[in-house]
Amino acid sequence: MSLIEIIFWTGIGIVFYSYLGYGILLWFIVKFKNIFRIEPSFDSTFLPHVSLVVPCFNEADYIEDKIVNSLALDYPKDKLQLIFISDGSTDTTQQKVLKYPEIVGLHESARNGKAAAMNRAMKYVTSPIVVFCDANTHLNAEALKELVKHYVDPKVGAVTGEKRIITKDKENASGAGEGIYWKYENFLKKLDSDFHTIVGAAGELMSYRTELYQELPTDTLLDDFMQSMQIANMGFRVVYENKAWASETASANVGEELKRKIRIAAGAFQSMARLPKSFNLIANFRVSFLFISHKALRWTLAPLSLLVVFLTNISLCLQTGEIYFFLMLAQIVFYALALLGWYLNNSRFKVKMLFVPYYFFIMNLCMYLGFIRFIRGKQSANWERAKRA
């Protein structure tokens, strides 16, 4: 086998492992582990004091829906503190929050970013458990009870809920692709949690032991990911609970999804640079194995391998032909379907089979664009929420 063939098949292996092989491997490991696992028993009377923190920026259009949803949560009112913190909002978000005496409404005119807002809100938290969620999401009524039940175990340092994307039958490719992606991602998070700990929580619904919360640099892009990884690196488990969920609609269009994905990609490279311990397989094998397999490879070698595989496949076609011709043809067809999905994205003609290649292509393209933004230092910590469908 020639060097170029080794490079080609190594690239194929990296892409396969990153997106499918890792999930298959972990599924078998968890299945075997569950043979000896004793199901945890939860104490329904364990209802500690909880603070629900909602960072806001110009959320006037739906902040009152969020308030109503928060007030309707099935949790003892005398044990629930609601904090809505407005970071530089220039609309009527804060005025609407202040209409509700049950809520602690915090506002600062200067816009310093979500991490800064979260750090500031923590100074007002009076409970042993703090929960963060987004202003444009709706929580199920039992969400808080389902999250806190895990804190009976002193080894649990954080618990995350499930992110659900509300889609319609005639959703555009971007929206439907996002929905499919998050169903698969939630499946992997469940496997991670059952194996040991999740690596990277969804900020739409995330809880921590207050004592473990670490103040983040104000330029942090992925606050939820950084906070949960730091807790995992401290030796605590970060648990996934699918009975607590936060729902939101998909991105309104391709442009909005690109904006969101590029920011996440830039944050991914920033996070990796700030979490060197997460790569240390000797210091903490299970956390590092999960982090590298589930996150780092998808963010780095997998997108690079896609390009390498395509270029080396061209060379192998010219040199040897045979099977490499059919593999080249398969790649061309896949990317053609992705481009067709982009072309038909907002048209009335919907082909669901195009959603997966389209979204897969967009995800990996954004890793390149996010890396460029990270290197140039052009990604602002001030978040601007993507418009939703």
Please provide a written account of the structure.
With 389 residues, this protein is of the alpha/beta class. The chain has 12 helices and 8 strands. An 8-stranded mixed sheet has the order 3-2-1-4-7-6-8-5, with helices on both faces. The longest helix has 33 residues, at 3-35. The radius of gyration is 22 Å and the shape is globular.
Class by SSE composition: alpha/beta
- Determine the fraction of residues in helical runs and give it as a percent range: 40-55%
Strand order of the largest sheet: 3-2-1-4-7-6-8-5
Query: So how many helices?
Result: 12
Order of helices and strands: HEHEHEHEEHEHEHEHHHHH
Q: How would a textbook summarize the main sheet?
A: 8 strands, mixed
> Strand fraction band?
5-15%
Q: What is the 3D shape? A: globular
Weakly predicted, low-confidence segments: none
Give the terminus-to-terminus CA distance: 50 Å
- What oligomeric state do these chains adopt? single chain
Task: Round the Cα radius of gyration to an integer and report it.
Answer: 22 Å
Rounded mean pLDDT is 89
Question: Using DSSP, what is the number of strands?
Answer: 8
